Amino acid sequence: MRQHSYWRKALLLSSGLLALSSCNLLDREPLDQVGPDSYYGTAEQLGTFPINYYASLFPGHGNGGYHAGIATYDDGTDNQATTNPNRSMFSNTTWKVESTGQPSIASIRNVNWYMEQVLPKFYAGKIVGDPTDINHYIGEAYAIRALLYFEALKVYGDFPIITQTLPTELETLQKASQRRPRNEVARFIISELDSAIKYLRPAFPANQRLTKNAAQLLKSRVALYEGTFEKHHRGTGRVPGDATWPGKDKEWNKGKVFDQDAEVKFFLEQAMASAKVVADAVSLTPNSHKTNPDLPTFSGWNSYYEMFASRSLDGFSEILLWRQYSKDKRILHLVSHQLVTGTNSGWTRGLVESFLMKDGLPYYKRNTATYNDVTIDNVKKDRDERLQLFLFAESDARSYDNAKKVVKKYECPNMIDKPEVRDVTGYAQRKYYNYDPSMRQGSEMNDVSGVPILRASEAYLNYIEASYELNRTLDADARKYWDQLRQRAGITGTIDATINATDMSVEANVNRASYDWGAFSQGQAIDPTLYSIRRERRCEFAGEGMRHDDLVRWCAMDQVKNYVIEGVNFWAKIHEYSYFWGTKTVKVTGPDGRETEELVPDPTQTRIISDGTSKANISAKSLSTYHRPYQIISKANNNDMFDGYTFYQAHYLYPVSIQTLELCAPGNKIDATYFYQNINWPTSTDNPYALK
Q1: Stretch (H or E) spanning 399
Q2: For the chain, what is the domain count?
Q3: Which residues 6+ apart lie within 8 Å of 261 measured at CB?
Q4: DSSP 391
Q5: Cα(144)–Cα(122) distance, rounded to whole angstroms?
Q6: Percent of the chain with pLDDT over 70
Q7: Which ranges form a coiled coil (predicted)?
Q8: Any residues with CB less than 8 A from the CB of 687 and at least 6 apart, and which?
Q9: Distance (Å, rounded) from C-alpha 666 to C-alpha 677?
Q10: How far from 675 is each of 169, 245, 685, CA to CA, in Å?
Q11: Residue 167 has what pLDDT?
Q12: What DSSP designation does 604 have?
């Protein structure tokens, strides 16, 4: 994987996604979940296959490991930063076309094989068991194949569509590798999800497996992704029908007519229809508007917060699918412990400043005499309650001291400790932090907090965005859904007041520190309404790993040049906190008269090193009062990312390896390959032809 591993590109598709590994993998039987031809004759047997793909298709906190799971999946974007900058995405020297390596298609091949075994028996009525269960497991298989292809679509765009295992002849296998236009791939994915919707149950106990509404949400996600991608990338060579689209001269595409407007319309209408089904059927989990628990009572204080941090998510109205953890089964994680002690991650100033004030005005329209950002408490004051709930600040509850019977406050982010437990920007995420003390007993794996996988709020946002992108107006349903999201977030102002106060000369000012990348498509500022919709999505899904896909489909990174990631306003006040003091030894006389030595904080000494050397732990005040995690080390000390992030257009899609180009070509001639190279990438192992 060339992009940050946190972005999870196609976990099931092995080393780098779906190319044809030696163009011979499709002819073999699956390497796992294989049985004799007589298998898959009962409903119970059918169910053993799809369940094995849940863990890798749907993100979770992992099982074990010293990390914060989904809470770090936005790292490497303008939302979130880890210790190491995202060189792969924002450097032109790191990510090159590889000479070898083809991604395995084992997962798609396995699903194809399963369908070939099951569907003939199903249509012949030869599978024994509850018809509802039989239908459901077949529906899951359709959904799994759809999601495998969706991951391939996001990474490569144009892609082969293969629904059966193939014979071993080389010519047949090579022709099977013909990349189909991405709109055809997306239509195929939607048809697969339609089949899934047809067969899946309307409900499943505790929402532990897919349902009809879950598949409808996934359909709206796919359709919105493709509709907005084709709209905002038009003319770049990444959309079928563009003059520079690499597939235009391929034999199998000759005679095809690409009506780009019609394709965008189709996908956006599909997104609206599926999203509406879910949004009308599923209510949002309510927010009590309480922003801290009354410890030691740690549950029952706010359903919206606890939807991300409870043992069981069964009963939360909004949850369509979630992952359960279990001590008995030794399926555990460490997320709550990591979040409160440091995650090697942190929200950016740009993300934090995108949250509105409670009255619905943008942050830059606040009264600066009343509201400032010299403390994190101040940053959160009178803001969108999603910021208040899901970002740690000084006065937020951290835990409960049973011995002293007091609530321990968060007090200060862990900014200068060793990288693996550092709050990189000073803005530490609280989403997914469970206040149940049994979830964070030291650094041992004890956390069994469930993880939301699919939330109905996404359907609300998908409808709002798709309808506006299609019709350039907010219809009654869009306004209804948007009002419900804003009301839950504690925002009192109207949608129109927010839009009218949104100043695109500020939002799209590339010279403004920490501007929002989502204010652009193809390097051009978008209108205030569309931007307000994108901002809403950014705030609703902060810390949930959705930012990268959104930025890609919006074509929102063309303008990113020398973008410097910033965090808290460190040098105004926070640098004075006792956490940053050194220590001194003092002599203390105990009640028994015996004298001992103790280490105590010493405000005359500092732990802060901001000299730009390899020992530095904070960026220099001379650079900015805001902490800049990638400018801690000076440029003179070999910091290659000191000047910030610069995006290269080739990076919207993955390159195809030279080996794949050759293996999928008659006579190994790259010019004749069926699996052609993506736009802006060369057919040699050099730097990409990165357009600016």
Answers
A1: strand 397-401
A2: 1
A3: none
A4: B
A5: 18
A6: 93
A7: none
A8: 92, 93, 96
A9: 16
A10: 17, 14, 17
A11: 82
A12: E
pLDDT of residue 10: 35
Residues 450 and 207: beta-carbon distance below 8 Å: no
The sign of the CA dihedral 243, 245, 246, 249 is negative
Report residue 189 CA to chain centroid gap: 20
Is 7's pLDDT higher than 60?
Answer: no
Structural domain including 631 reads 574-637
Let me know if residue 587 belongs to a domain.
Answer: yes
- C-alpha to C-alpha distance for 482 and 533, rounded to whole angstroms: 9
Distance, in Å, from the CA atom of 210 to the CA atom of 54, rounded to the nearest integer, reads 9
Contact 533, 465 (CB under 8 A): yes
Residue 316 near residue 450 (C-beta atoms within 8 A): no
Segment 502-519, tens digit of pLDDT: 999 999 999 999 999 999
And the tokens for 29? 């039987």
CB atoms within 10 A of CB 328: 6
**DSSP conformation letters of 313-376:** -TT-TTEEEEE--BTTTTB-B-HHHHHHH--SEEE-HHHHHHSPBTTS--GGGS-TTT---SSH
CA distance 532 to 523: 17
Q: How many CA atoms lie within 13 A of 439 on its CB side?
A: 25
Judge whether 609 lies within some domain.
Answer: yes
Is pLDDT of 142 > 80?
A: yes
Q: Provide the 3-class DSSP secondary structure of residue 582.
A: strand
Q: Report the C-alpha gap between 312 and 306 in whole angstroms.
A: 10
pTM score above 0.85: yes
Q: Give me Rg for the CA atoms of the chain.
A: 26
Cα distance between residue 645 and residue 101, in whole Å: 28
| Residue 599: φ, ψ to 5° | -90, 130
CA distance 456 to 461: 9
The rounded distance, in Å, linking the Cα atoms of 288 and 111 is 44
Count how many residues are written for the chain. 692
Residue 115 lies in a domain: no
Residue 292 pLDDT grade (very low, low, confident, very high; cuts 50, 70, 90)? very high
Look up tokens 């990349």; give the residue: 179
Sign, Cα dihedral of 538, 541, 542, 547: negative
Q: Residue written as tokens 């992009």?
A: 3
Q: Give the chain's mean pLDDT.
A: 92
CA 373 to CA 567: how far, in whole Å?
A: 11
Paired tokens of 342: 């440091």
Asked, for residue 148, whether it belongs to a domain, the answer is no
Q: Give φ, ψ of 218 to 5 degrees.
A: -65, -40
